[in-house]
Structure formats: C-alpha cells, structure tokens
Specification:
With 354 residues, the protein is of the alpha+beta class. The strands form 4 sheets. Strands 7-8-9-3-10-11 form a 6-stranded mixed β-sheet, sandwiched between helices. The protein has a 5-stranded antiparallel β-sheet with strand order 2-1-4-5-6, with helices on one face. The chain has a 5-stranded antiparallel β-sheet with strand order 14-13-12-15-21. It is globular and about 80 Å long.
C-alpha cells in the first residue's frame, strides 16, 4: 500500500479560506486521523484527496502518483485515483440489495461480470455480512449499514481508504464496538487509511498518528500519546481531552506561580526565564482531592479549591470545584464532607509562553 503526501494545501469557499497551507504525510499502511472541531477543514481535505473537491493551491500524491497539482491546474478524475471512501451518511441506494450496493464500484470500473460475485462474497465475509447479500438497507441496523458502505469502498481493493466520520450516526455503545472492529479490519487489510473525526476518544483509540487541525491549519502531528501528553499549542491541549488554563509567571527555574490563587506548580518547561508570563494547562483527570491530614499551605502542586456542586455518576462522584476564576471537574469515589479543600496535581501541567 502506498503513502500519501499533502503539501501546502489551501482551499477557499466564497472568499473564505477553509484550508490554509496544510501539509502532512501518511505512511504506508498507517491509520492516520484528521482530528478537529467542525469547520476546521478536515472534510474538505479528505474530499480533495478523493477528488470531489479541487483545492485552490497545493499538491497531493499517493506514492509516486500525483493526484493534484494546484500550480499546474491538474486534478486527476476521482474514478482514476484508486481510492475508496466511506461517507458520514453511508450513501446506500435504498432500492438495491446489499450485494447490488457493493457491486456498483465494480460496474463503474467495468470489472467483468463473472468476476464480480467472487469479489462481493470475499468483501462481505471480510466485514461480517456474508449472509446478508439479499437484504435491503432498511432491513439492516445502523452498524450493518456502515459495514455495507465500508464493503463497497473496499470491494475493488483500492490503494487508499478514506473515512469521513463513519461512526457518527451510531449510538454510543455501538460506536465503541464499531471502532474496535474498524481498527482490527484496517490492521488485517494493511490499507493506508485517513480517518476524519471530531471525537477525541475515537482518534486516540484507533490512530497510529493524529493530525490536530484548527481553522484550516495543522496544529500538531504525532502519536496519540504524543498529542495528549505533549501538546504543541494551547488549542491542541484544549481540543484533545479536557484542559483548564491558568495564567501565571515563572518564579524560579521549573516553577510557575498562578495569578488567580497564588498556587505554585511544577513547570514542564525549564527554559523560560524568571518573570516570563505563561499559561498553564491542567487536565482535570490528573487532579485528586487531598485529604485534610495531607493539606499543606503553599505546597507545590497544590491548588486551593472550593466545592461548588457534587453529582453521583455511578463510578463515583463528579465534584465541580472553583479554583481562582476557573471551574474544574474531578471524579472521586466518595463524597466530600468539606467545601474548602486542596487539589493535588498528580502530573505537571502544560506550560505555554503567554
């Protein structure tokens, strides 16, 4: 399977630049995710790779084959790109059976009729729908319809698979099952895959690497662990997981003092000069409530907090605290007898120059 290279891609809609000088490289056989909020340009980028949108600028290539060259105004037709795509809506024909839906790409590519049945049988077995050839879309569950759409994209063995939020129409429990199945299938086939989603948990679970997008630009590219544990920008930290930001300044090497509550926190960067203005990003799941006997005035990595509300959520209590001007949610197994507490920061926050 080939790799994919996108260089300096830009695209405008009615004078509005939705993709802005975007570049990334997808390795051969990789499950690569474009992650970002609605309107960040991820679907436009995917459609540009598929050939359904002609970008204003930039180049796209798969292996040695150039698909798009904005400079030369060259755009390879979609049917020649050997790319399979699954849309958010699945786009199944309701009047056709499962087998007929899956057969459509083979007809478009003029695959001999005597060869189609074997290809359809193979791909439906691959996606777990071997007994569903004669069913219609309305006779299938949402998860089964999603598999039909995937089978249709894979039936002619494309070199690249593009997935545009394919799980967004499924309920929460089915989404968990579908993402596990989808990742296993990608590993088995080894097909180079680009997955578009705004769901951080899906991206972290399924991806080999993630490109975090915002306002048409790439903020960061890395493994799920790199993107989560070492965010490159505040926007990346804020979108991938939960993060609360506190203004502060460096008071000594490796120590930040917060403006709002005076707490002193360990800094992740020790190359900032004393007095430098910074913003500290704290993930709520890395906070825990300090027991009264452990509370230490002015202790490092302790945040003074006031309990605002508490809700039972099954696995424990979701406590909402006020820390300075911010609110943070902390899950604890037990309720709290006091309203004025300290929160311990179990791992250093992310420090960004202000």
């Amino acid at each position: 399977m080939p790799d994919i290279t996108v260089n300096h891609l830009s695209h405008d809609y009615g004078g509005n630049r939705v993709v802005n000088d975007l570049s990334f490289h997808v390795r051969d056989g990789e499950f690569f995710t474009l992650l970002g909020p609605s309107g960040c340009g991820k679907s436009t980028t995917l459609q540009s790779i598929a050939g359904f949108t002609n970008p204003s600028e930039g180049t796209i290539s798969v292996g040695e084959t150039v698909l798009v060259s904005g400079e030369r105004k060259y755009y390879m037709p979609p049917e020649r790109r050997e790319i399979g795509m699954v849309f958010q809506s699945y786009a199944l024909w309701p009047h056709m059976t499962v087998a007929q839906n899956v057969a459509m790409p083979l007809k478009i590519k003029k695959v001999a009729k005597q060869d189609r049945a074997a290809l359809i049988d193979k791909v439906l077995e691959q996606v777990g729908l071997g007994e569903h050839h004669k069913r219609y879309p309305h006779e299938l569950s949402g998860g089964q319809q999603q598999r039909v759409a995937l089978a249709r994209a894979l039936v002619y063995e494309p070199s690249v698979l593009l997935l545009d939020e394919p799980l967004s129409n499924l309920d929460a429990k089915l989404r968990l099952q579908a993402r596990e199945w989808l990742k296993d299938l990608q590993r088995q086939t080894g097909i180079t895959t680009i997955y578009v989603t705004h769901d951080q948990q899906e991206a972290l679970y399924a991806s080999d690497r993630i490109a975090v997008l915002d306002q048409g630009r790439v903020l960061q590219v890395g493994t799920p662990k790199e993107v989560y544990d070492d965010p490159a920008t505040p926007a990346s930290a804020d979108f991938v997981g939960r993060c609360v930001f506190f203004p502060g300044h460096i008071v000594e090497r490796g120590v930040v003092q917060l403006d709002e509550c005076g707490a002193r926190l360990t800094a992740t960067k020790d190359n900032l000069e004393v007095g430098s203005r910074v913003s500290v990003g704290v993930r709520p799941e890395r906070l825990s409530v300090v027991s009264p006997g452990e509370a230490v005035a002015d202790g490092l990595d302790r945040l003074p907090a006031t309990l605002v509300s508490s809700s039972y959520v099954g696995s424990g209590y979701d406590h909402l605290f006020r820390v300075g001007e911010q609110t943070v949610s902390v899950i604890e197994r037990f309720g709290l007898p006091e309203t004025e507490v300290q929160l311990r920061l179990e791992e250093p926050g992310y420090v960004f120059a202000a």
